[in-house]
Amino acid sequence: MRGNAVVVGSTNGIGKAIACRLARDGFNIVAVGRDKPGRREELLSHLAACSQSDGARHEFRPCDAFSLAQVKACAEGVASDYAREGIDALVLTQGMATIQGFTPTSEEGNDEKKLTLHLWSRIAMANCLLPALRESKCMRGGPVVLSVLSGGVHGPYAKYKTDPELKNNYSIKAAADFAGFYNDLVLDRMAEKNPSINFVHASPGFVASNWGTEMPTYLRYPIRFMQRFAMSTDKCAGNMVKPILQCADGDIGLSTPDGSHGLFIMREKANSGTLTKGHSDDAIDSAWKATQDVLNRSGMELE
């Protein structure tokens, strides 16, 4: 076996396709997602069919990533169970498309519909699993944390100092830029603090998945029509797992275009992307502090 991969958002769409592809390539899968009736059994059966090895070991961990409390409980459980064996890859795909405005969670006060899914839950999961990732034993180029969202295609969020949690200037565009920009910033700092781990922020491109099902009817139908011409989830998954397979097989980890190691920005064809012009030490410091504040309110410490 090539190792253990945790895939968050693995019950459908891109996440499910990535979990299947990694199972096919010899990874044991820890599938994380919402546990609706029959979903666990269907997913585990699907992963078993994808596997090429009789010794494959797949499991499902229920978690609603709208809740940071659930993310914390799930991640700490995985980290404890894999403390000695190690985690070799963490893939974060949880997300949704909605035009809904700022919708705070009742217990945490964070926007749940976009920012918690696209940002806070991803950082929380990665942060809790850092000890298990450091115990990776199967990746010659080092373990990988892969966040599939908007690497190289989002804009910068300019008000990171005056509105660091996007509570006062919320809009659909601001939320999209905020989540993508903060993924860059926080993962960059995590890469700096954890040089033995490869951090990747990827853009999947336009994919024929279930993206857009939460949209109003007048938007959902045009999206479904256009998705007839989009990339399949299987093809997308093949591109997204390339850095993981490279690190599994390669002698060295990923490198950025300038040859250094750190956060790797990846576009939809697994080619290298670029950071925004707003990516600075000041922005990193501000995003890191805001993330610390959010995680602290949920009982977590950002390493």
Automatic annotation (TrEMBL):
Keywords: Oxidoreductase. The keyword S-adenosyl-L-methionine does not apply. It comes from Thalassiosira oceanica (Marine diatom). It comes from the Eukaryota. InterPro entries: NAD(P)-bd_dom_sf, SDR_fam, Sec_Metab_Biosynth_Oxidored. GO terms for molecular function: oxidoreductase activity. This is Uncharacterized protein. CDD domains: SDR_c.
